[in-house]
Amino acid sequence: MTPRIKICGLRDAKTAAAAARLGADAIGLVFYPPSPRNVDAVVARAICGALPPFVTSVGLFVDADPALVRAVLDQVPLDLLQFHGDEAPDYCRAFGRPYMKAVRVKHDVNLLEYAARYADARGLLVDAFVDGVPGGTGAAFDWRLLPPGLPLPLVLSGGLDPDNVAAAVAQVRPWAVDVSSGVEARRGVKDLARIAAFIQAVRAASIE
């Protein structure tokens, strides 16, 4: 199986459309003001409008006020919500949209219990734990911490780039991979050549 590929942190319609043409299955839009990848609803709506059929638009939120999430949903046709903070299960399901829950992996996190808490999520996104930073750090984690038999589709994130994603796919065999800083020319600015190389590496690893 070829893992699905999500390119996260897109900030303009042209780059998002180009990423889709290169083979991205999903585009991530960040609604978290402290992030250099944050977008407003007007830009996000334009990005969604530029996507071809069957490319999923994902909205990322971090412990957002519910009113903010609803305001974004009123303006942006998001297909999937991604909650990247400490959101409770009831919060995640309160918006009537499919959602994916992120967890920052460290030794004392029981991923099987975590997945059971969010049993109605479409997937569990695993990222590196960096104190005080919810994601997008470019840091990797020890993939050996991932237990077998997770009951949710696994989305692997955290420090992936064109050079290491093939090894990640071979070792973890995730349902999908998610990349942001690993395909950037500089912080918050995507590099299409790196996106193309990342996608090619995922596909090559899948047929080895």
Automatic annotation (TrEMBL):
Keywords assigned: Amino-acid biosynthesis, Aromatic amino acid biosynthesis, Isomerase, Tryptophan biosynthesis
Pfam entry (one): PRAI
Statement: the UniProt record of this protein carries the keyword Cell membrane: no
Name of the encoding gene: trpF
Protein name in UniProt: N-(5'-phosphoribosyl)anthranilate isomerase
Superkingdom, natural source: Bacteria
UniProt xrefs under InterPro entries: Aldolase_TIM (IPR013785), PRAI_dom (IPR001240), RibuloseP-bd_barrel (IPR011060), TrpF_fam (IPR044643)
Catalytic activity: N-(5-phospho-beta-D-ribosyl)anthranilate = 1-(2-carboxyphenylamino)-1-deoxy-D-ribulose 5-phosphate
Gene3D superfamilies membership: Aldolase class I (3.20.20.70)
Top class in the EC scheme: isomerase
Organism: Chitiniphilus purpureus
Residue stretches making up the N-(5'phosphoribosyl) anthranilate isomerase (PRAI) domain: 5-201
Entry's family note: Belongs to the TrpF family.
